[in-house]
Design goal:
Order of helices and strands: EEHEEHHEHEHHHEHHHEEHE
Number of helices: 11
Number of strands: 10
Oligomer: single chain
Largest sheet: 5 strands, antiparallel
Structural class: alpha+beta
Distance between the termini: 85 Å
Length: 310
């Protein structure tokens, strides 16, 4: 006669999982996610939690199938904190646990994405031509091999900190680059990489800019702008530009413009000429088109290069 073996009620067996772990209140809590979905969720690509979580439960040990007792959760997260809020905190703040092979693939994916972003936003200030990802990679390798900094290249126009106390203090204040990690988004790391390249100039680089003219009916300028999508809001937050997510139509347009050249009102139309990063051109065009229902325009006047601080 077959015998039934009872599995403890707080044990759940899962396979092919990616763990996210958070230590809180002297306890370590884990959630079980589908592989590759955690980064997609954190970057805003995936928004459906059902596609991220294998099961909406909190574990003390996923590998042992041991779920966290309710009392442990109350002590660590507070007696009135809902389970969903606990899961969200672990998902957003926890550390991902991945195998060596998966970690290497993840690092390579983020590394390539960082290179693509940087190569698309920096140019040679003399020729105004973009660099290949290979050249950007070599320049970043040079920075990381020197502890995040490097000597300037010939003719870069950026002074290398001198020897002595003043030089050391200046070097400490300058941005550094030590390599790609998997715990930060590719976009935020690309911004760090660009700051270090511009500061240290291992190769001559400047931020690429487009000179644009934006026109918009004055009757629309003071209207409240439509709320951005979650992906747009997360991108703005990663850039440190959360103001793009709020304000009037005029505020949102100005948030895209990094340097205003002229701004004027002629009759019933407002016009601004300024410099915009190439990566922001599409978003600005879509925003103006949708908010003005085709009455506003974005025109490219010139491809230009401006040095940081100009």
């Amino acid at each position: 006669m077959p015998q039934n073996i009872n599995q403890p009620s707080n044990q759940i067996r899962l396979t092919n999982v990616s763990l996210v772990r958070l230590k809180k209140g002297k306890k370590r809590f884990e959630i079980a996610c589908y592989k590759n979905k955690v980064l997609e969720y954190r970057s805003g690509v995936e928004t459906d939690l059902d596609n991220v979580l294998q099961i909406p439960s909190v574990f003390l040990s996923v590998s042992k199938g041991q779920t966290a007792p309710t009392e442990d959760l109350k002590k660590a997260f507070g007696p009135k904190t809902p389970l969903n809020d606990i899961i969200m905190e672990i998902l957003n703040k926890g550390e991902m646990q991945v195998g060596e092979k998966e970690r290497h693939a993840q690092l390579e994916r983020v590394h390539n994405e960082v290179l693509d972003i940087v190569a698309g936003k920096l140019v040679d200030p003399r020729s105004k031509r973009v660099y290949t990802t290979g050249m950007i990679e070599k320049a970043l390798d040079q920075l990381s091999s020197h502890g995040g900094a490097a000597h300037k290249s010939e003719g870069s126009g950026t002074a290398t900190p001198t020897n002595g106390e003043s030089g050391k203090e200046k070097a400490k204040e300058m941005p550094t680059w030590t390599g790609v990690v998997t715990t930060k988004s590719a976009k935020s790391q690309a911004l760090d990489a660009m700051k270090a390249l511009i500061a240290w100039q291992p190769i001559p680089v400047s931020r690429a800019r487009m000179r644009l003219r934006v026109t918009c009916p004055t009757s629309i300028l003071k209207q409240a702008a439509k709320a951005p999508t979650k992906k747009e809001a997360q991108d703005d937050a990663a850039d440190g530009e959360s103001e793009k997510s709020t304000g009037t139509v005029k505020d949102r347009i100005l948030s895209y413009v990094e340097q205003v050249e002229t701004q004027d009102t002629v009759g019933q139309e407002w016009e601004i000429v300024g410099f915009v990063e190439p990566g922001a051109f599409r978003g600005l065009g879509e925003f103006v088109g949708s908010e003005t229902r085709g009455k506003g325009r974005v025109e490219v006047l010139d491809m230009a290069v401006t040095h940081e601080g100009d």
